[in-house]
């Protein structure tokens, strides 16, 4: 572990000592918040949506829901997630100001929304991770909000109040100098979304991560000393989310759920109590470093709170590669032992895997497949290495002259191995990892070694609600029809599902059917060259965006 490296490169933004400013607006404003469409990727689980009826998008847009909740309560707010439905001309015409947010992969759609808003004569503002990292991507937007919620947000709101739709002569930048403490964050404005449109619900308990993996921008964007909400805030958010519908499962979108172990140890008993009082309406999932496996007490509490999935950035099974990328926290115990420990507490591990490290050899793909076989992990995001701005990796590659900005490439990294060999190794690894037989073997392992270790949840009114029963029936019908009868791997499906249904393991069959359907279909598209090799690769997504981008008025 190397926690002191490059400390001087981190400009930590302090928190606002006085907390939130109670701003009283002088004017009434209408704010249209738009979350831009994102392109499909492995992690959006879009092939599962047709099995799920009302689901249109992966998770509700936390950032823009938060901004919507932070705006003066007397203002009118309309929130549109373009992954669910596009904003219409009437929406733009209604608004004084159009606010948007997003990640780098949404860059094109963000700029398109800006064009449409300007054609309607509206003031535009952009915040969120992409503009905070690369403001130069957005030269035409009227107001840029850089950094997290804080004093910049207050200045931006004041500007909206005083100027309405009136556009400035040149771009204005508000940069957060003091962040709002997380424990003063409002409850995200869940009333503006329908939870049944989402594959998963999401909440955020903390922000930041104490580690410094070479490829990751989290420590520089959000700090290394995780900032926290209170347990009461989290349970209030869960209550409010359920008022907008029960998504069935909620993902803690924290950069690292155990970034502050003491805080999470204090949170978990509150989650356990909340589940007991409410009848265990939700499964929980989170993202955490693999050294979570060394804390059995924490894992026990997570099991009691009904955590069923943990995403761990394993990245590579090769120890020398982990050392080279400064991910030493994955070496604190043998990786297979860590995965088995999580499984023993009922938690299925989802793993991030990256191909293209400097230490990779022609054998790396086979080693990854061996690791998948022996770890029995069903779901792995297998991506090509991509250098993000504001990371140690970016700076190193820039100094070595190894950044390549050709958008026709699958990655901006000049690998040490020949480019074509690396891309081919990625394609072979992902397609073999998701061959139906291989994937279903791993799911079968989870059904016997992981799922039975979960807490026995009661048949409460919340779990047996009419809405839940209808959703379960619809899912089962779709899985049986689209996978069990029409699917090109139906024999594999029935080998697992037949005996499981006889044992009445209906929830497990639904989970395997839905997740497996996406993984298998996505990998088959990768094999045909129809999907990009990196979450950040733009090439195919640009084509798709061009085909689907709504036309400005
Ligand atoms: S990859 Fe994960 S563990 Fe590493 S710095 Fe980023 S958030 Fe932290």
From TrEMBL:
<dbReference type="InterPro" id="IPR025274">
    <property type="entry name" value="DUF4070"/>
</dbReference>
<feature type="domain" description="Radical SAM core">
    <location>
        <begin position="195"/>
        <end position="428"/>
    </location>
</feature>
<keyword id="KW-0479">Metal-binding</keyword>
<dbReference type="InterPro" id="IPR034466">
    <property type="entry name" value="Methyltransferase_Class_B"/>
</dbReference>
<keyword id="KW-0949">S-adenosyl-L-methionine</keyword>
<dbReference type="Pfam" id="PF13282">
    <property type="entry name" value="DUF4070"/>
</dbReference>
<dbReference type="InterPro" id="IPR051198">
    <property type="entry name" value="BchE-like"/>
</dbReference>
<dbReference type="InterPro" id="IPR006638">
    <property type="entry name" value="Elp3/MiaA/NifB-like_rSAM"/>
</dbReference>
<dbReference type="InterPro" id="IPR023404">
    <property type="entry name" value="rSAM_horseshoe"/>
</dbReference>
<dbReference type="Pfam" id="PF04055">
    <property type="entry name" value="Radical_SAM"/>
</dbReference>
<protein>
    <submittedName>
        <fullName>B12-binding domain-containing radical SAM protein</fullName>
    </submittedName>
</protein>
<dbReference type="InterPro" id="IPR034530">
    <property type="entry name" value="HpnP-like"/>
</dbReference>
<keyword id="KW-0408">Iron</keyword>
<keyword id="KW-0411">Iron-sulfur</keyword>
<dbReference type="InterPro" id="IPR058240">
    <property type="entry name" value="rSAM_sf"/>
</dbReference>
<dbReference type="InterPro" id="IPR007197">
    <property type="entry name" value="rSAM"/>
</dbReference>
């Amino acid at each position: 572990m190397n926690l002191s490296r490059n400390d001087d490169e981190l400009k930590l933004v302090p928190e606002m000592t006085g907390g939130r400013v109670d701003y009283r607006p002088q004017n009434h404003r209408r704010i249209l918040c738009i979350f831009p469409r994102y392109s499909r990727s492995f992690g959006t689980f879009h092939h599962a949506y047709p099995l799920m009826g009302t689901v249109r998008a992966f998770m509700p847009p936390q950032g823009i829901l938060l901004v919507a909740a932070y705006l003066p309560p007397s203002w009118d707010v309309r929130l549109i997630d373009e992954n669910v439905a596009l904003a219409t001309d009437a929406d733009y015409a209604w608004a004084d100001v159009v606010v948007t947010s997003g990640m780098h992969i949404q860059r094109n759609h963000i700029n398109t929304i800006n064009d449409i808003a300007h054609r309607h004569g509206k003031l535009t503002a952009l915040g969120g991770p992409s503009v905070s990292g690369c403001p130069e991507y957005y030269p035409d937007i009227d107001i840029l909000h850089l950094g997290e919620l804080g004093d910049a947000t207050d200045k931006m709101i004041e500007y909206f109040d005083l100027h309405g739709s009136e556009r400035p002569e040149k771009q204005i930048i508000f940069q957060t100098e003091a962040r709002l403490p997380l424990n003063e964050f409002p409850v995200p404005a869940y009333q503006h979304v329908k939870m049944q449109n989402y594959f998963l619900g999401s909440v955020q308990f903390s922000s930041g991560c104490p580690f410094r993996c070479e490829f990751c921008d989290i420590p520089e964007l959000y700090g290394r000393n995780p900032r926290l909400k209170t347990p009461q805030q989290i349970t209030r958010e869960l209550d409010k989310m359920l008022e907008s519908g029960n998504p069935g499962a909620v993902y803690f979108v924290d950069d690292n759920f155990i970034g502050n172990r003491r805080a999470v140890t204090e949170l978990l008993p509150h989650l356990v109590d909340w589940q007991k009082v409410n009848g265990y309406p939700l499964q929980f999932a989170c993202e955490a470093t693999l050294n979570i496996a060394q804390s059995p007490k924490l894992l026990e509490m997570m099991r009691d709170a009904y955590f069923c999935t943990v995403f761990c950035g394993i990245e590579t099974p090769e120890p020398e590669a982990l050392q080279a990328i400064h991910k030493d926290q994955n070496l604190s115990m043998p990786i297979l032992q860590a995965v088995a420990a999580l499984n023993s507490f009922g938690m299925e591990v989802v793993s991030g895997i990256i191909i293209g490290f400097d230490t990779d050899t022609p054998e790396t793909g086979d080693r990854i497949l061996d690791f998948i076989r022996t770890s029995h992990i069903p779901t792995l995001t297998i991506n090509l290495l991509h250098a993000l701005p504001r990371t140690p990796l970016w700076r190193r590659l820039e100094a070595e002259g190894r950044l390549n900005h050709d958008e026709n490439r699958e990655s901006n990294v000049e690998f040490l191995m020949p480019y074509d060999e690396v891309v081919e190794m990625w394609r072979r690894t992902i397609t073999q990892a998701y061959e139906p037989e291989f994937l279903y073997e791993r799911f079968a392992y989870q059904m016997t070694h992981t799922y039975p270790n979960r807490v026995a949840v009661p048949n409460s009114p919340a779990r047996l609600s009419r809405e839940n029963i209808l959703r379960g029936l619809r899912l089962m019908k779709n899985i049986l029809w689209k996978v069990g009868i029409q699917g090109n791997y139906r024999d594999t499906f029935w080998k697992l599902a037949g005996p499981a249904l006889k044992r009445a393991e209906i929830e497990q069959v639904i989970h395997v059917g839905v997740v497996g359907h996406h993984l298998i279909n996505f990998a088959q598209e990768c094999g045909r060259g129809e999907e990009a090799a990196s979450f950040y690769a733009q090439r195919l997504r640009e084509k798709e965006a061009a085909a689907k981008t709504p036309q400005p008025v």
